[in-house]
User: Fold these one by one.
Assistant:
Number 1:
Amino acid sequence: DGGITQSPKYLFRKEGQNVTLSCEQNLNHDAMYWYRQDPGQGLRLIYYSQIVNDFQKGDIAEGYSVSREKKESFPLTVTSAQKNPTAFYLCASSMVLVRSVGQPQHFGDGTRLSIL
Amino acid sequence: AQKITQTQPGMFVQEKEAVTLDCTYDTSDPSYGLFWYKQPSSGEMIFLIYQGSYDQQNATEGRYSLNFQKARKSANLVISASQLGDSAMYFCAMRDYMIYNQGGKLIFGQGTELSVKP
């Protein structure tokens, strides 16, 4: 079945540690996104990528880094510079069609990150 | 700036009844799309329904329909014949053409928590 796989489901970070969240898709989508969700809140964009080897900062990129070496993969690293990393992280992907605003984003099941 | 507002933090509905979840949006772009997602307690975001700004008819998908009132900038989700499995957070989201040119992210509202009572 086509979809987006995020791992791990739960992750704990120690002080000063970098951690990496995995996101893999087999939908053949060009665009991939990382969102952060805090309790009772909507989603905020961290980073996005529309093509391999290129990515752009979203609204809250500080303390995070990404890479896009393969179309299928878009890992997110939460660095020690992110002082409040406890949140639910969602990865999404979508097709990119010229002049089309109507492509839905498809989401993975998310990763819950907590501070130890 | 683009914005989505969901004014109902939580709602209750009796099983088998219909319920309307409110969503208002703000954009100056004439070309935009509106999306509704469902987020169960397990966390995944499930795409429900889409309405384009130029669509002449309100979108429908099974028990979900979208009450699109363009002049009022509202895109309310209507769930008919509620089921216990409909209990979840519901998010309204938007993308306009300017956002499309900036990477195509979705702008999300704060969400409405729906509880279906047996």
Number 2:
Amino acid sequence: GAGVSQSPRYKVTKRGQDVALRCDPISGHVSLYWYRQALGQGPEFLTYFNYEAQQDKSGLPNDRFSAERPEGSISTLTIQRTEQRDSAMYRCASSPSPGLAAIGDNEQFFGPGTRLTVL
Amino acid sequence: AQSVTQLGSHVSVSEGALVLLRCNYSSSVPPYLFWYVQYPNQGLQLLLKYTSAATLVKGINGFEAEFKKSETSFHLTKPSAHMSDAAEYFCAVIVPPKIIFGSGTRLSIRP
């Protein structure tokens, strides 16, 4: 597609339910990133992939959060046993270069985000 | 640790007036800085980036930013605001592989 897409765009769930958020990166992009953006704040890094390999998950808040990118393209961020504090905008970005590429190649292209509300 | 601070969570200017959005960084090494814009219901879009090639960086939509090492600043400016500039603006620094964002400044344009 022309850009990064995410689905669903909005998700409302009850506390304790599991949710899966999907990211479709720009075709051919090597690296894929997940960020979380709380209201009134900038996005915060969660994790990223080079191809299908998860390289850094230091930003994941706890073990209820996991992500995968099994074929090196589409990625899914899963939150188990959701809590109200998980409510946020979840943003995905992709880049044509690996995550540790030269600085000038590090441009990341962001999707529209998924707004998650946990009741 | 590298970080950025945006001064002012909300800035309001009249149409045609100068836009100035402030960003200060903290870094022990030369930083690579970005400005992103977020329009309502859209993703983040790169406005411009500083990668040490030139201290004055020109971006899209008439925006520019000047890197001032002595002031550890990377303020975003536009000479004449347009209604379509209303959005949220984020200053960011790259610490590979992640981007560290400031808390954002919402720009409003008064007719």
